[in-house]
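Researcher: Good morning. I'm working through a list of sequences from a screen, and I'd like to move beyond sequence-only analysis. For each chain I'm collecting a predicted structure so we can compare shapes side by side. This is the next one on the list. No need for commentary yet; just the structure.
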Amino acid sequence: MDHMAQDSINVLPRSSLSTHMAPMEHSETSVASEREIAAGRQPLTAAQLEQRLVFERNHLPEARILSDPSDLPHRGDVAQPVSKLEVTICATKEVVTFQVKAYLHFTDCDQYRHTFISTYIAYNMSGKTRYFDTIVVGCGGIGSAAVYWLSKTSSSVLGLEQFELGHGRGGSDDVSRVIRYGYHDEVYSRLVHQAYSAWETLERESGLKIIHRTGGLQLARKGEGDHVLETYMAAMTRDNVKFDRLTNTELMRRFPQFNLESNIVGFYVEHSGIVDATMANAAHIQLARGNGATIIDRCPVTRLHRANNGNIVVHTTKGVFECRKVVVTSGGWLNKVLGTIGVHVPVTVTQEQATFYATPHMKEFTKDRFPVWCFHGSRYDIYGLPIHGNTGTKVGVDAGGHAVTADTRTFDPDPVREKACTDLVNVICPKFAGPILNTRTCLYTMPPDRNFVVDTCAYKGWSDVIVCCGAGHAYKFAGILGKILCELAVDGRTQYDISRFNITRDAIQDPTFKPTFFMGSGMEAKL
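Model: Good morning. Structure tokens for this chain:
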């Protein structure tokens, strides 16, 4: 079936659809998800139309075709009469799927045009609870990767997303995120090796370009942030990561776009660059669906509980599901889910932001001419990226936002941090700046030590609930974290060293632990 983009159109109300339902063993249903997908305007002959119907009948068992053009809700800008309406209903004991298709007839060419498709999935609320081997709660960067890797082992996988897929309310959207070997702790620089491998797998299976290598710089003023650079370089040395220590003159020789004072030093790591987050999330979901996984968006999870048979029951606003394992990757909302089983991770949620500049010097800041960079200052760690996904250079403050909650945050930029970024850029790289295109906000969800949490909830008697918190710096690792979560769910263990990310460490369990959100600095967080 062709699924191509077109403006959305009103669809049949539930009351209209229910009049066409074949008799079912369980008649009480609730519409669980609605997706309007329009097909393209490629003309279809009657023969092609018949071939399509045969294909759909063969792939939708227990289905029947209904034709009744009067049921189609008309739209003012549709001039041609509807000549054919088809409602395909696939009914099982637990699930009813409706596919509504309308065709317009053009007398001048005696052809049909496929104008839209609308799909309803209705879950039986009074009958048997639907079972999956694994349910992933939260389909952002890490969750979509987990669904993808799990779908490679089984089609009995359900991904639940409380908002629409690709929403901008969490921490996984945007067109560009930094990936880098330069890290303050070798536990992360070692994992970057595996992260690149996971992204390469996604690129190979999707045929899309996800990683863009640009090289990466870390910068600081002597006596101000250079101790952070030393921490990074020591960690990379222990892990045999190659880097070049550079003076300001050497930095400007490599990248003449910079204008650096003599007291600025830094280092360069070749294998750094950009991850296209928006594309990666979508690719993970689309491949997972192709492998047979089920994805339901706009479906908040309300609670978990233990079934009499030992499985986990997942309650949502669109039905009840049962599974063997649950993977919680819900970012700033993770305690809403975990709290229903008595688990709490002491995270701080902050509202962060990134600003895009409409530089007139675009040619100097393309990915093949300019690196990703981070400047470690006395108050902020400020990072920058070359142009990708739009026409603007990108700059932001790492972990500099105000504490919020995931539900009460605003989407309003903070002018103080906008100014801090602009002031720095005007000093160290003036052509990088320009009029502000836009400033986008996102959420960081950080444990007190700003290390990942990747563990089961066995310490509370829930070894079959697996939790992952990315601590506000995980997107570069999203692919490999998805694979790790898959291994934990399927095998009960992982081949990768996640011992430092356990949920029983002092930073998680000791309420007196002082938050330290600035990586490599050791400074106590001040929010």
